[in-house]
Amino acid sequence: MPTQPPRYRPPGWKPGKPWERPGLFVKDNRKRGRAGMRDRAAVLAEEPLCRLCLDKGLEVASDIVDHIVPLAWGGSDQRHNKQGLCTPCHDEKSKAERKLAQRRKIADFD
Ligand SMILES: [Zn+2]
C-alpha cells in the first residue's frame, strides 16, 4: 500500500549520490570567514528590525541573518535570499522548516 503521493521528477532526474550532496565532502556556496561576517553585518545594517516582527506590527531588533529559502533546499546565498530576523522568529522559522523537511524529505535531495 503506498504511503506517499507520487512526487514530480523532471525528465532525466536521477537520485543524488550521498557524496554529491552538500555536507562533508561537497560545500554549499555559503560565504564563510571574513566574507561571511562582512555580508551578515551588511544585511543587519540594512535591516535593523526583524522582518517577521514588523509584519506583526512589532519593532524588534534583528540579530540573525536568515536565508529565506534555506541553502539545504537550494536557496542562494545572494542578498535577495537574506533577511534580518530576531532570534525567536529565526528559531520558529527553522523549527517549521525542519518539520516540513522531515515530512517531505526535501533535505535528503531524493
Ligand atoms: Zn522577530
TrEMBL record:
One family name in Pfam for this protein: HNH
Regions of compositional bias (Pro residues) in chain numbering: 1-13
A Gene Ontology molecular function term of the record: nucleic acid binding
CDD domains: HNHc
Location of the HNH nuclease domain: 38-91
Compositional bias annotation for Basic and acidic residues: 89-110
Disordered: annotated segments: 1-24, 75-110
Protein name (Swiss-Prot/TrEMBL): 5-methylcytosine-specific restriction protein A
